[in-house]
Structures are given as C-alpha cells and as structure tokens.
Amino acid sequence: MNQYARQTQLLYQGHRISGKMDEPEADALYLTSAFNVKDLDEMDFVYDGGGFAYNRTNNPNRTALANAMTYLEGGEDSIICGCGMAAITTALLMLVKPGDHILSDMTLYGETIDFMKMVLEKFGVEVTFLDFTRLEQVRAAIRPNTKVFYTETVSNPMMTVVDIRALAEMSHACGAKLVVDNTFTTSVMVRPLDLGADVVVNSLTKFYNGHSDCLAGSVTGSKELVKKAYDLQVLLGTNADAFTSWLVLRSLRTLDMRVKKQMDNAQKLAAALEHDPRIARVIHPSLASHPQHKLASEQFHGYGAMLSIVMADESREKMNAFMRRLDLVRYAMTLGGFRTTIAHPTTSSHGDLSEEERRKLGITFGLVRVSVGMEDVEDLIRDFREALSVYD
Ligand SMILES: *Cc1c(COP(=O)(O)O)cnc(C)c1O
Hints:
Elements: H1 6-12, H2 40-50, H3 60-73, E1 77-81, H4 84-95, E2 101-105, H5 110-120, E3 126-130, H6 135-140, E4 146-152, H7 164-173, E5 177-181, H8 186-189, E6 199-203, E7 217-221, H9 223-236, H10 242-252, H11 255-274, E8 279-283, H12 293-299, E9 306-311, H13 316-325, E10 330-331, E11 341-343, H14 355-361, E12 367-371, H15 377-388
Parallel strand pairs: 2-3, 2-4, 4-5, 5-6, 10-11
Antiparallel strand pairs: 1-7, 6-7, 8-9, 9-12, 11-12
Helix pairs in contact: 3-10, 4-5, 4-9, 11-15
C-alpha cells in the first residue's frame, strides 16, 4: 500500500482483513462473540496473535479499524476502545504506577482531568496541572518521578495550541513519555507521533467518525507500548464492539474530504464574524489575533474546524434568544459531526469550575464554542449573522 497517496490509502486501509478472494466489496461485519477453532494447534496459533477466538480479545472489524488508525496516525500499532475516555484511561493506566507523577496541561477535556484527580490520585499517582503553553513553567515542575506528560493538541474552548515537539524533547530528557490527545485536530492536521510524542489517543466519536452516531476511541504508538495497552484492555474490557468499529472505519473513507471542508468553512466563518460589532472576540488559530497563530501555522496542516465566539453582551436571556434564533445550527453536547453544532462551556463542560477559575481561563458567559460542519459556508455565515441580530 505504501506506494499510494494518502487519499488512496484511506479508501483501502483495513479492507479485506481475512485476505479471502470472495469477500464483498463493502467490509463484512462480524457480529459474533466467538469464532470456531479447528483444533488445539489452531488454538495455539490464535493465542500467538494469529487469528480470532473471542470478541473481547480480538474481532476482525476492530483489527481492521486499528490498522487504519495505525496508518493514519503513523504509529506501529493501535487498539480500538469503546469511547475516547476508554482509550485515555487505558493509556494512562498502562503508563503509571503508585508513586509516579504526571505533568498535565490544565485545559484538558473535563473527564480526563476528573479521571486523573478522582481515580489516579486515589491510587497514589500525583498529578500537577499547568498551562502547557508556558514551557518554562512545565520544565520547572518536572520531578524525579515524572513519568508522563499529558496534553491535547488544541484546548477547549480557548483553542490554545501547544508546541508538541518541544514537549516531546522535554519529556524525553527526563525519561517521561508524552501522551497527546489528537481529538480536536485529527491526523489530517497533525500527527503527534511524527513530532516525537510516544502515544496518541483519540476520541473517534468526534471528527474521525464524523457522523455523530457512535462512541469510540483509539490508542496508537509503538508495538511495545500498544501491546501493554492491549493486555490491559483485555482485562478492563475497554474494547469497542464490532458494529461501532465497522461504522468508524466506513467513516474514515471520507475523513480527509470532510475535515478539509470543515476546516475551510471554519476559517471563512471566523473571518466573517471577527469584526462583527456584536461579537467581542473570535478565537480560531487561523486569525492573526490568536496567541499561537504562528505556532499553529508551523505545526499544523490547516487550523481546525473548532472555533469560539465571545458575545460582548453576557445576558442569559439574549443567549437563549440567540440559540433559538439559529435556524441550521443546533446546540449538541458533541463535536466533529458533519453538521455545525454549538456548545456553551460556562453551563456545561466548565460548569463545575468557580466563576473565578473560569475567568482565569478566559471563559465568560458569552462564549459559544462552534464545531463547524460541511454546510455551504454562505448559509452558515448568514445563519449566525441573523441569529446575532438578537443582540442589536
Ligand atoms: C469527547 C472528547 C473525549 C472523550 O471522548 P468520548 O468518546 O466521549 O469518551 C476526550 N478528549 C477530547 C478532547 C474530547 O473532545
């Protein structure tokens, strides 16, 4: 396959996993808890990783998707999990033991922070949360027992961008592993493993699947690390089921086209709204006003399909009116789907923080996070402009 371009490979990776000649053109779906094994010799072969016996340990649809994710993220191997959190928790449990220390960005997905605080700390793992855009602070917080650096490529909802290469160098200098959550960006924009990260985790629920119809996750890295994650996954039962794996692999065939169109729409929407008098600020890495615009230009292919807009007026009534007035765009607690959706961090993802903590992060009541879809961009711009008239 390697002689082919990415767009071509995207259509074929993971296809025809059994190698038989008479397979259907679409990928077959293996809805079965177990496989028949001929005799003890064949069972030995299966136990050595050469085949399929029981769904929790291996399933052809999961293997096919894992192979495609390994290709896309540029790793040596992958496991496919039941959701992004299953991938994140499996990866972290694989890397730490009691007495270890994690250095983590402070602007992570809320449940990732909760897992570190409520589960890992309970088992004797220390975690320090810091602003990973300030590399000197990260360096100063390294301890002799620091085993993991953990970050996301682009933060939610302020869209800050971290320097993955610098973090990889810093983590390796102290013998730690760098884990990067690539959910907001996907391998269309950046491959953290190419920049030195050791493990990349994804919520495939979002852009990778892109159709808002299932939850899934992935862990990708070296053969050695993924083997450890796999052994743990078999015990924890964090595997994705066959149908979910089938759905996500089907969606991957159009990943490049979807994400490129979404990124293009996001850049145009950001530019169209930036100077709108009813909006105080538009946050998107494509804008020169973004604090890491230069880093994003160097590190990423494209600027992403996630942006935030900040209303100057912080009235709840007007926010409700704005949300009701939008015709195409809906409020949904997800992102990365083919349709544009919005979220309101103050009352959802960041609702548990104090007013002061939110202010420190820059999250105000007027902030709306937008996951940009594949609509005709002029329709999208018009929808936002018309709904913004409630602020006039
Ligand atoms: C959604 C999300 C997750 C969690 O994924 P699930 O599939 O919902 O478990 C993790 N990280 C980021 C950045 C996310 O957006």
